[in-house]
Fold this sequence. Notes:
This protein has 305 residues and is α/β, with parallel strands linked by helices.
Amino acid sequence: MASKEGFMYLIFGATGSLGGKVAKALLAKGERVRVVARPGSEVRRGARFTDVAELQRLGAEVVEGDLLQPETFAQHLDGVAAVLMTASGTKRAPPDTLEAVDVAGAGALARAAKQAGVAHLVFISASGAGPDAVGIPRLKFEGENAVRASGQRSTVVRPAMFMQDWIGFVLGAQLQGGGRVQLVGSGDPARIFVHEDDVVKLVTALLLAGPHGDRELTKVVEYSTESASHEQIVGRMARAAGLPVKVERIAVGEPVTTVPEPLAGLITHLLTMVADAPSSTAVTPEVNRLYGIEPTSIDVFLSGA
């Protein structure tokens, strides 16, 4: 591994919430950070995104490049010791599909990093990724395989469902519209969750630690901190707010009606995507112990603390 002096971290996806927070965490530690921004892309103002101008003010080097066009970013890998890819097509529109970004883009980045002599690549996948998965986890697994095929030493992080997205948004937006929450499907399996800020701490620690020493070139880190069903969480939200909440079940194919469009369409899509997901209680306290993370619980998240 190269000496710490002159270390450079390159981040693809820094205008998203997770990538932006990792960039800020590295900058706060005095590290050198280079972020790739696509030319002509709109600055997203939502709370779940990061303004690249803010990163620049904090000391990040901002360069132009497009993950879908390797010739535009290969030059930015010079002098880079570690690369982080948090970019994803999950919240974008074509041509930025999961197939284009999370699979083809991940493979192109890993191959370019390998050619440039980058010591370590960290790729953000998803909990449940595997050969038998469907939807997003299946495509994330294909992205993992594209990284593996490159021969680049890498760490794959498979975080559980983010509390901010699945509790704060999918359930919280419905509660803001009244005392009703709709869930898609007849079942309500246990699901695993993690706070995004805990994932930031894990990813930052992985980057600072440098490449892993495992025999296999690609190391997989599963990360989840708490398990609960959506209905259990709704009950906890109701108690925290001191308000009665009615849970309604709707069939797959029916639209959510608790919020107006376009939110209704997005929430329907997300709930449908996990409607048939298997139950899981696979939390990973060993990750918190190994990296010194004090995890944020669902109840603490709901309290706003």
